[in-house]
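Dear colleague,

Thank you for sharing your sequence with our group. We've completed the structure prediction you requested, and as agreed, I am returning the results in plain text so they can be pasted directly into your records. Please verify that the sequence below matches your submission; if there's any discrepancy, let me know and we will rerun it promptly.
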Amino acid sequence: MIDKNRDDFFCYLAFSTCFALALVAWYLLGKAPIPAGDLGDSDCYMHLIRASDLYETGRWYDSVIERSNAPYGDRLHWTRPFDLLLLAGAVPGSLLTSFSSSLFWWGVVISPVILIALLVALRWAARPLLGEDGASIIGFLLVVQVGVLVYLQAGRPDHHGLLLLLFVLWLGFVVRLIERPFAPGLCAAAGAVSALSMWTSIESLVTVAVILSVLGGLWIRYGGDSMKKTLCYSASLFLFTCLALAIERPWSDLAAVEFDRLSIVYGVIFGLMTVLLLALSLAAARVQSLQRWQVRLSAGLAAGAILALAIWVIFPRFYGGPLADVDPGMTRVLAFTQELQSLLSGDLFWTFGLAMIGYGIIFLGLISCRMIDLRDPRWMLVLVAAVVFTGLAFYEVRWAMYGQVLLLVPAVALITRLRTRLSSSQRGLRRLLANIGITAVFLLLAASGPLIVKHTGKAEPPAARAPSSVKALCRYLTTDAQWQGRKLRILAEINYGAEILYRTPHEVIATIYHRNWQGIADACAIMGAQTDEEAQSRLRSRGIDLILLSPGASDSSLFADPKQTSTLYNRLCDGELVPWCRPVQLPDELASFRLFAITPE
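Please find the predicted structure tokens below.
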């Protein structure tokens, strides 16, 4: 059996590696959604910029990007773990080529590499629930889940892939934590993974809430060692969060209150939570009435209320969410960010939601038929997490990747049950064909939504994408004689800002990040100005040299106000002459762009 399991693992690893290599080859051949030589989106370029700045300056604590939101600079809400992951591959590669080239190509392949680790981790995480056979099957279904692949394709260096890997590791540790007797090592490992995930992005607070809810529910219902597990997990989470804070921030900044990235806010919350759990644990050992579940429920609710009240007193803006400190005007900008759209929006439902609903129906069917027993706390964990993350996905599509991973678990449980039944009734070729057919049905379910989008014309209209290459534009802005050797300040469409920063030495005003709300507000105010005098005054105050427009871009309507027809944006797009704004003749390949030079006073 040991030899068979080892052989199965190496076959699984070989499949994972071959699939990742296929993604890279697809990209290099120009067949992938991301064109060869490009990166997926603004986030990808900004990640490389951050890693490059860290390598060149060595300033760990100073993550301000000076050329963004010029002349003031911009500090993103991201943290250092993914920067380190980028440098871990780029620095060794720089022994063979330039660092910038090494960083770019490592950025191209990093997500497929993470996918290999994710598939291996998922096999390990799912084994207690699905057995050896089911754990080997789940990876074959994962690689056709669009919500997962969109973040793990070649050419997309994005921290969301790292978050998904950490989520799967968290799931594996928590399932084992729940099914086994109290083991401090397991609790500490689960807490450490949660803390690393929180360090990467505070959206991981959802996973913390899920495990605390499940472990708390088990303690209320059954008592036992669930309180020890909860306390140990919470203490580990608190300690590793404090460690992450000490690494991420300088001592002078440890007390900074920020809601959109790891800060003292979350350290204090986890500390308070640990103290309350310790009090409950001590009470449970000494107060006889806590042997009854009704009393435990009251105590648990009281502790939760105390924690919620304490957070409200200490950090009242916490309940405003991660964007509590962001200018309300940013909501208009965030509406243009696809990953923040509802799963019910346009073709997103067909691409992501259809398969999730199908898998959800399978899960409910297995529960109703008692093929999955919710008295098993491991399956209760999967159910609670699946409901939470699927619900969040219908609110914002970026949560879909977590929901898809969770909903695969009951789907594979059904596949293994059907395969087992067939094994006892079919033999030889007929059994093989039946097993292939069963798996193919589930693969088709995952692919059904994208196929519907492709064959019914529901895909995003061409007008919503830039017809010309931003890379070609950047090449023009660095090699054309009139721009060579100059450092220009550019007002451009917000989705182009990061790529311009990455590919040129120039500066930009607006980028599509909520902390740069002032740059976005100024750009919109300039382009929405009703008079030339107002626009010129704002342009001069920012020191802008060039205005770059692309009327067919998806974010161009940020500058176009349908209620106002005499804005600077409309005048420039309509070809009206503005005295201090000179149109620049662009090469034919850049025909979809419009460039204007601001004449000196």
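Summary note from our side: The beta strands are 489-491, 507-508, 546-549, 581-584, 594-598.

Kind regards,
the structure core
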